[in-house]
Write a structure and sequence with these properties.
Strands 5-2-3-6-9 form a five-stranded mixed sheet. Strands 1-8 form a two-stranded antiparallel sheet. Strands 4-7 form a two-stranded antiparallel sheet. It has helices at residues 3-10, 29-37, 70-77, 87-94, and strands at 15-19, 45-52, 57-63, 66-68, 82-84, 111-114, 117-119, 128-132, 150-151. β2 (45-52) and β3 form a beta hairpin. It has four helices and nine strands, in the order αβαβββαβαββββ. Helices cover 21% and strands 26% of the residues. The chain is an alpha+beta fold and 154 residues long.
Length: 154
């Protein structure tokens, strides 16, 4: 099991594990996951890591149907600018492989933001998803508004 699933179990949080066969040639982890699992891309989220100008890592959680708005993230984080974190840096800091990074159970704690997105391309998960029971999946609720970002510090 992953650290995220172990954390959910430890705290008694009801969840289900959804698995699929990962195609290494897939253009998008999140797009592949929603397609193979038959899920709504607006209700499945990807976890992305960005780096600030001072090299601090930030976690951004956006729907698979959206793209991270780095300007909105920088504004919400109170920094001048952000860029996507280096793949190896993200993997070292989280303990997960890119394409399967969870916001839960990471090796280090990072400031975490929800909804810093633009609508557009997909990306995000690798072979396994944990979904919180009663999380609202399939309710048809819209994703966060364009250029809105909420800090979810843990």
């Amino acid at each position: 099991m992953t650290p995220a699933i172990n954390l959910l179990k430890k705290h008694g949080i009801a969840h289900s594990v959804l698995s699929y066969h990962h195609d290494p040639d897939a253009a998008s982890y999140g797009g592949e996951a929603v397609q193979q699992l038959g899920l709504d891309p607006a209700q499945v989220f990807k976890t992305l890591l960005a780096s600030t100008e001072k090299h601090a890592l930030l976690v951004a959680i956006v729907p698979v149907s959206g793209t991270l708005d780095l300007k909105a993230l920088a504004e919400a984080a109170g920094c001048k600018k952000c860029e996507m974190a280096d793949v190896e840096q993200a993997q070292r800091a989280t303990g997960y492989l890119v394409g399967g990074i969870s916001p839960l159970g990471q090796k280090k704690r990072h400031r975490t933001f929800l909804g810093c997105q633009r609508t557009g391309a997909a990306g995000g998960a690798r072979e396994c998803r944990a979904a919180r029971a009663g999380s609202g999946a399939g309710t048809g609720r819209p994703a966060a508004a364009h250029r809105r970002c909420v800090c979810a510090d843990r």
